[in-house]
Design goal:
Blueprint lengths: L5 E5 L6 E3 L14 E4 L1 H9 L36 E3 L1 H7 L3 E6 L9 H14 L4 E5 L3 H13 L2 E7 L4 H9 L3 E5 L3 H15 L2 E2 L8 H15 L7 E5 L4 H15 L9 E7 L4 H8 L25 H10 L3 E5 L1 H15 L5 H15 L8 E6 L7 H10 L8 H4 L1
Parallel strand pairs: 5-13, 6-7, 6-9, 7-8, 10-11, 10-13, 11-12
Antiparallel strand pairs: 1-2, 1-3, 4-5
Helix pairs in contact: 3-4, 3-7, 4-5, 7-8, 11-12
The protein binds pyridoxal-5'-phosphate.
């Protein structure tokens, strides 16, 4: 049996440590909490005997550096183990010879949110919680509801009232109660906080509990393992709450401490929409934290996040990696959703389109070189966005957007 080597939690801003096996939310200074592991023991596990070779594919193959102790609580729906695909056609189109796509859209519930919520729900239930709630732009709600159902726990999902109906249907399909809130994910979060006492639930909002980030870090581990313990030159990541970006950044430090990689790091590149680009604004201004974006609007629901808990950690990862941040307009995003489908056979989400649309701009700015190895994260599946994408096309009929695939 693979034991978790979790030792304690810590605040990355102050270094203060917290007992691991108690229920926690934020750190004393209002930042996220990170998990610390006995990486020496984990490294020995990985190096001795069969190491990782005989472990099952998927996220739990890294169980010794994940926080769930009792295997009985390790929920699975088949998350992780997603393909790293070469993308010669769309690569040629954007101007990068060696473009790789990490296709997270094939995860359970159609997005990489499955990774974070798999771990967060498993750990919450292990710690005795049986009622969970989440504010979501869409995908996180479906993932949370699915794992809650799997665990026999109760789920309440707070979602903006204009989120595509597919997201609501999915949550209800898993038996969750859906509360639709006027406004954005931040308004949904405020409503959740307001209902918390009466609701008697535990919130698994992005980075407001310690373990979603642990699930998302497995994208970084998996990527490095798939590349033969090498790193790409750059990682392009559609950034909303930033959990995946900071999770991968944490994973690389852990892999270095375990002797799996050296001190090299990929440049981390955050992509947002011009309709909601708080991280880009803060990055360009040289700020250490993010200011809330007003009137956030984008077809990429996962990027419609005007403010986030992990802002300092996101900005730190971008700067420490010599990376950058870039916003792309929705029109270009939708063009690349189309190209992703016709060039590569992947029915992507708008977030996926955004990461690809960013590449020509990054090349023009010399933030990427055409000969570099570039990994774009495709974070969501397009199927759940059908009505949202159609609505966008209808409202933007004057735009020269290729709509053939979406309307078919
Ligand atoms: C939530 C979401 C994002 C943003 O993810 P973070 O890790 O919170 O930045 C990107 N793409 C999709 C499809 C999402 O659902």
């Amino acid at each position: 049996m693979l034991e978790s080597t979790l030792t304690e939690l810590y605040c990355p801003r102050t270094g203060t440590t917290y007992e691991a096996d108690k229920i926690h939310t934020l750190s004393d200074v209002g930042g996220p909490l990170y998990s610390r592991y006995d990486l020496e023991t984990a490294a020995t596990n990985w190096q001795e005997g069969a190491g990782l070779t005989n472990r099952p594919a998927g996220l739990w193959r890294y169980a010794d550096i994940l926080p769930v102790r009792d295997p009985h609580f390790r929920l699975t729906l088949g998350e992780g183990g997603t393909p790293l695909l070469s993308a010669p056609r769309v690569g040629k189109r954007v101007g990068v010879a060696n473009l790789l796509l990490k296709d997270e859209g094939i995860n359970p519930t159609g997005s990489f949110k499955a990774r974070g919520l798999c771990i967060a729900v498993s750990r919450a239930v292990e710690l005795g919680i049986d009622s969970l709630a989440i504010p979501t732009a869409g995908n996180a709600g479906g993932a949370m509801a699915a794992y809650a159902a799997r665990a026999g726990a109760t789920a309440t999902v707070y979602m903006p009232d204009d989120a595509p109906g597919e997201f609501v249907d999915e949550c209800e399909g898993f038996g969750a109660k859906v509360v639709r809130v006027a406004g954005l994910i931040t308004d949904a979060g405020a409503q959740l906080a307001n209902d918390k006492k009466a609701g008697g639930f535990f919130s698994v909002a992005t980075l407001k509990e310690p373990y979603r980030v642990e699930g998302k870090k497995t994208m970084g581990i998996e990527l490095v393992e798939q590349m033969g313990w090498k790193l790409p030159d750059a990682i392009i990541y559609p950034t909303g709450g930033g959990t995946g970006l900071v999770g991968m950044w944490k994973a690389f430090d852990e892999l270095e401490a375990m002797g799996c990689i050296g001190a090299e790091r990929p440049r981390m590149i955050a992509v947002q929409s011009t309709g909601c680009a708080p991280v880009i604004r803060a990055f360009e201004a040289g700020d250490k934290s993010v200011q809330p974006w007003t009137d956030a609007q984008t077809v990429a629901d996962g990027l419609r996040v005007p403010m986030m808990v992990g802002d300092q950690e996101i900005l730190r990862a971008l700067r420490e990696s010599s990376g950058t941040a870039i916003a792309v307009p929705d029109e270009e995003t939708m063009e690349f959703v189309h190209h992703l489908g016709t060039d590569e056979g992947i029915y992507g989400s708008p977030e996926d389109g955004a990461t690809l649309a960013a590449i020509p701009h990054l090349l023009a700015r010399s933030d990427l070189d055409k000969d570099e190895t570039v990994v774009s994260f495709l974070t969501g599946n397009g199927y759940k966005y059908r009505s949202g994408m159609k609505r966008f096309i209808t409202e933007n009929t004057a735009q020269e957007v290729s709509t053939a695939r979406i309307e078919s």
